[in-house]
Design goal:
- The chain is α+β, with helices and mostly antiparallel strands and 396 residues long.
- Helix content is 24%, strand content 19%.
- Strand 8 and strand 9 form a beta hairpin.
- The strands form 3 sheets. Strands 1, 2, 3, 4, 7, 10, 11, 12, 13 and 14 form a 10-stranded mixed β-sheet that branches. It has a two-stranded antiparallel ribbon with strand order 5-6. A two-stranded antiparallel sheet has the order 8-9.
- The protein has one domain: 4-Layer Sandwich (L-amino peptidase D-ALA esterase/amidase).
Length: 396
């Protein structure tokens, strides 16, 4: 999908960015060259979806994987020791290992557009790494899960505008400990036309809540008035105290993408992904457990002379970018819990602690921006038609 043209009307023109503040959408799509598409289904027996981060310019990408139970695809290609030049898209999806099949739909969508590593007369090889969360059975049936058609539909929905947040996309069936989780994004402007953004599916075994106060662990990392109106819950709402950790099947996972348009080498984006894992640890306790598959991808969409980790002159700027990515991820985790809404008996933070959220005026805007289409039978049929392969020749 081509980048969306700016609306020329004065009332809709983007506001000039302010150093140290969120970008226009407070989303990863504020990073030039990053688009997001999402689809989901929350009608029983489904409670799952797909989020695609689409990179039209095949951007340099690294990965850091610290959870003990990952469901991932093509992550080895991202090592600085390997030759892969970049990726075309990244899947953050539901349905765990079964949901990795949705990647083939994204790959086919990219192939139809001629995007990928050039293979000469053979065609192209689209590069699409993925990391999925465990949400199997949360809608009522473990076999109600994503497929290649879902990946195609999510990729085709990619936009560089506002991103829908909450119970949508790959975060549709997510849980944050014993609370409803979801998908959320955040960004920050670092000056010199450089942005850093993050998008995350919060589906953690660990808790996002301070057990003593009932507050969200990462809320203090908000930028300016980002969390204005968010208050500690009343003492009555905090009783009885709970661990806030996941219950039932102890299989979870937080997966994320952090991105910048500063030009970074492959080793630097790998380092950025590792630093961003700190953003998970600041907002979720415990994190990176043997029940989680915590995985973070980092992307650089920038062109020009790349910042290198072994260049002393680049160290200060790299540290600034890395820290911004980690903080953006922490901020997004907080908003994921706030944007989540109760479903199928899974309680949200704002339902459990209504006094904490009642003054949070931005909540409706966070939940209402952007698009995330529900998957329909008609859409699946159309995607299946587009994914159909040539028939096997007779006699083979």
């Amino acid at each position: 999908m081509a980048r969306v043209a700016a609306d020329p009307s004065p009332s809709r023109r983007p506001v000039a960015p302010v150093l140290g503040s969120p970008g226009q959408h407070n989303a990863i799509t504020d990073v030039p060259g990053v688009l997001v598409g999402q689809v989901q289904l929350a009608a029983r027996p489904y409670l799952t979806g797909v989020t695609v981060v689409y990179l039209p310019e095949m951007s340099v990408t690294g990965v850091d994987q610290r959870g003990g139970a990952p469901a991932t695809h093509e992550t080895d290609l991202l090592s600085p020791l390997n030759s892969n030049p970049g990726v075309n898209a990244i899947q953050l999806g539901g349905s765990s290992l079964y949901g990795l099949s949705a990647v083939s739909g994204i790959v086919r969508w990219l192939e139809e557009r001629g995007e990928g590593v050039n293979l000469g007369p053979v065609g192209v090889a689209p590069i699409v790494p993925a990391a999925d969360i465990f949400d199997l059975g949360r809608g009522g049936d473990i076999k109600a899960r994503t497929s290649p058609e879902w990946g195609w539909l999510a990729a085709a929905a990619a936009s560089d505008g506002p991103v829908r947040q909450g119970n949508v996309g790959g975060g549709t069936g997510a849980l944050a400990g014993d609370l409803k989780g979801g998908v959320v994004t955040a960004s920050v402007y670092l000056g010199s036309d450089v942005y850093v953004g993050a998008i995350v599916l919060v589906n953690s075994y660990g808790s996002v809540v301070d057990p003593a106060r009932g507050t969200l662990l990462g809320a203090g990392l908000g930028l300016g008035v980002e969390f204005a109106g968010l208050k500690p819950p009343t003492a009555a709402e905090r009783r009885p105290a709970a661990s806030g950790r996941g219950s039932g099947t102890p299989l979870h996972t937080v997966v994320a993408v952090v991105a910048t348009n500063a030009p970074l080498e492959k080793a630097a984006v790998t380092r950025m992904a590792g630093h961003a894992e700190d953003g998970i640890a600041r907002a979720i306790s415990p994190s990176h457990t043997l029940y989680d598959g915590d995985t973070v991808f980092a992307v650089s969409t920038g062109a020009g002379s790349a910042l290198r980790v072994n260049d002393p002159a680049a160290a200060s700027r790299l540290n600034e970018i890395f820290d911004a990515g980690a903080r953006a991820l922490s901020r997004a985790i907080v908003r994921a819990v706030l944007c989540a809404e109760p479903v199928n008996g899974y309680t949200s933070y704002c339902e459990r602690f209504p006094s904490a959220c009642q003054g949070l005026e931005a909540l409706a805007a966070w939940r209402g921006g952007g698009q995330a289409q529900a998957v329909t039978a008609r859409a699946l049929a159309e995607a299946r038609r587009k994914l159909s392969l040539p028939p096997v020749p007779d006699g083979t």
